[in-house]
Amino acid sequence: MIIQRATIFGFGKWVNETFDFSEQQVTYVYGENESGKSTLHAFLLFMLFGFPPKQCEFYRPKTSGQIGGRLTISQGEETFMIERLHNVRNGEALIYTSDGEQKGEAWLKEQLKGMTLATYQSVFSFSAKDLLKITEMQADDLGEVILGVGLTGAKNLYAVEKQLEQQLGVLFKPSGKKPLMNQRLTKLQDIQAQANDWKRLEATYQEKQAQVKGLEQAIEHLKKNIQELHEQRLYVDKQKHALPIIQAYHTVEKQLEQIPKEITFPEAGVERWERLKEKLLPLKSEIAVLQANQTRYRSEIKGLTEALLPVDLYHEGKLVMEEKPRYEQLTEQAEAISKSLQKQEQQFVHSCNELQLPIDRSEIDQLQLSVFTEKNWKKIKEDLDQLDVKQLQLQLDKKQQAKQRSKLMEEKQAIQERITSEQQLHDWKQQLQHSAQIFTPSSIEQQSTNQSNWKKQQQRKRKQTRLIFSVLIIAAMLLAGIGIGMDYTALLLLAPLVAIGAVFQWNWQEQSIKEMDRLFMQPTNGSYLSDTERKRVEQLVEQQLQLRTRLEAIDEQLKRIDVQALKWEEQQLQLTDQMRRMDERILAEQDAYPFLTHLAPTYWPDVFHSLKQLQYINGRMKEDEETYATLMQQLAIIRSNINTFAQHEKWEWSEQTVHLQFNSIQKLLEKHEAAANQCSYYQTQLAESELALHQVNQQMKPLTVEMNQLLETAHVGDEEAFYEKENQKQLQQSLLEKKAALASQLASFFPKDMLDAIMDKIPRLLDLEQQQEKMKQTTTQLEKDLEKHQQMLATVHAEIVGMEKREDYSTLVHQKEMEQEALHQQAKQWATLKTAKEMLLQAKRSYQNKYLHKVMERTTLYFRELTAEAYQYVYPPTAEQPFTVETNDGTRFDVKELSQGTMDQLYVALRLAVSVCISEEHALPFMMDDAFVHFDSIRTKRVTSLLERIVQRQQVIVFTCKQDLVTLAEKRSFVQMLNSIRIH
Question: Which residues form a coiled coil (predicted)?
Fold first, then answer.
């Protein structure tokens, strides 16, 4: 389908305008911003698909009342015209066919094969703002794009799929509560539970009425029994409360019967005795303390004397302890050196491992590495590198010579096939010499021109001849010089041959030039040739001469290549000899240093410095080992002194450390010193205690005399009897007072007759407690029974009230049936939506599989062309990454790593590929609106070339504001939006 012409009655800024798109080329609609390009683009879409009324009003012209126009379209051999007016026929199109028939909107949709505006914009139309979409494609978004552009647009299809998912989620979720079907299922479960409860409760209503009466009678009986038990408990509680008083009264009477009625005792005897005793008690305590201290002091002095060390052994221990700080200092030094040795050993091993050489400390110690050795190894490395470079250069020269020789031989063979025989050339020359010339001004001018051209060519040939002669002579001199210097016979023989070739080439070229001079300069006579024939013969002669000249030049070049080959062989021999001498130098160094056999000479200088470092580390380790041995000898002497001291004490150290041994000796000395100090202290305390004991005995004598007088007055012999008699006196008085108080208390509890009965038979506390406990248990049980019966009565009452207030069972059944019917309808709706979603997903997968591979192949082809084959492949996005492109060297970049221009090229290639694939079924015009804003002139040139090919099978219309785009396009139909001027 091709748009031939667009006639606008009124649409936006365009009124009564006509645009021609009939050229079979890419049509470029050019104009500055706000010139009406997008309005024209919208008009074409409006004519094909129509717009909603509100959108049409947006394009109503300011100077015209009409909105619409005509669009002439050719499809194959048929041409038809679409007429669409906004307010006519409700905006539907009227189509005039080539045979005069009129068709409607349905016929147009049939010609468009169901294509809608959204589909067309997704496949055959895009603008600059769409270029950003390429970076947003994630995972399976490419499949959505292919599906969208092939059907009704990715956004609409995605919205339908999301709408189906949302509707399914609103209806039902396996673990949800809010969906409608989940709520209805929960409600049905509640209704069924209520119905089951109603059936059970209805059967027990009469039984519960009878149960209420029985529970009320039992509650009254229990309350009466609890009241009686409460009264009995009050009487028992009084007896229990008064029982101690009764028992105390009885006890007081018996105690009074056992005490004498008259008791003799000194006035205030106890107080006097206590005062004397208080004065005497501290003195007796002091005597006891002094005596105990004396005994303890004597015992301590004896024990401490036995624990003291001999004087010579004590002095020996002090000498040993004086060595402790020195031992600790030596130990720290030894540990530091030991750690340093371990670290140096690790460093040494690590360095050896890095070098990967079979070498140990003994070999390192014996190595003789001088400055000369380092310079020699560096020299070997540098010479070897130079030899490698020479070898590589010779190989490249060899390949280059072979390549040049092959190329020259191919060219020589081609020239030989084109060159004619000498006889044929001679005949052509004779024809030119003897042709009859008509001396007209034009002929004379032509001859003059030919002669002038020949002079220029003659100068070039002479210059070329001199150059070749000079090169060959110089080459001959070089060959001769090299042959003499190196005594190489082959070069001496070759040099004269090259010189002879140079002379021969010079003479041959001079003869050829003279012959041509004779041909061009002599006057024309002889037979007549037409101008056309003469020109043809001259061209043939000139061509043959050029071919012969080129053939001679090729022969000279082949000779130079042969000379270069001889030079190359000589250089190869020299290099081989140098390599042999280098191998001898390397073997000599490897004999002197066997470990170098494991290393390439390139690394020898680096290994030299590493070996020097290893020698330095080994030297430091040897010094530390000697120092460590000296320290260990000094430590051994100190440990020997400690063991000698321990033998005097007969100690067994077992596996104790020296530090613990020092501590043991220190504790022993400290114990000796402490014992000596304590012994002196106790001797001083013993003397002071004996003096204090004598003074206390003098203070006790007058107090003892007065206490004996008190004992005689009470008619007792000791202190215990004195106190016992005083207690009897006080007990008699307190019992009488207590008896009167108890009698008064009992009178307040019981009446006299009840009290006399109780006093005759005093109850036991155990009996009262047993009665009380028994009545308590009975009361508790009765109260529990009462509470239980009350709860049962309340429960039964509540059940009866609930049963009386509940709805009828039939109402629940009816409600259940309604809910089940509603659930059934929702289940049908859910199943329909689920089926629709699965069918949609299946259709998406089928369409994606159909077009994705074809689209990506064509995208790769277009993108390769647009980037001048800088990128070879385009890979579709996956779940982990977006679009990926691959360069010629195999490097891959994702789309976000590309420049903006390259990203635009990728998107343009993708959209063109989709359009071309879809156009096999829908051959509609392809429209682009400012799609190349980020393209430079080179990229623009490539895309215009691509569009020129696509336009051969599909119409392409480009709306642009870039002047260089239409300038670069070679074949174009150009529409300029400027004062309605159209240029085709």
Answer: 188-232, 389-425, 537-571, 765-792
